[in-house]
Write a structure and sequence with these properties.
By secondary structure, the protein is α+β, with helices and mostly antiparallel strands. The chain has one domain. It is built from 3 helices and 2 strands. A hairpin with a 5-residue loop joins strand 1 and strand 2.
Length: 76
């Protein structure tokens, strides 16, 4: 498969491009690929709210390892 990567001005890859013929092959192999996978508004609002909270209070974000350690204490 021939793939082209598109990047932004910072050099970060932002998209992948495939030929139309290869896209048609992908669609035949995975017929549901173009299904609408959008989230309901209430879920998007909840995600946006949580992301804003993380942005506004980054010190509250903790590594998953510390959460797992706390959960282990509860089971003891």
């Amino acid at each position: 498969m021939s793939v082209q990567y598109l990047s932004n001005k910072n050099g970060q890859i932002t998209a992948v491009q495939v030929s139309i013929s290869e896209w048609e092959l992908i669609k035949r192999k995975y017929p549901d690929i173009e299904s609408d996978l959008s989230l309901p508004d209430w879920q998007m609002e909840l995600i946006d709210s949580r992301l804003k909270s993380i942005k506004d209070n980054p010190e509250r974000l903790k590594p998953i390892a510390s959460l797992l350690k706390e959960l282990d204490k509860v089971d003891e």
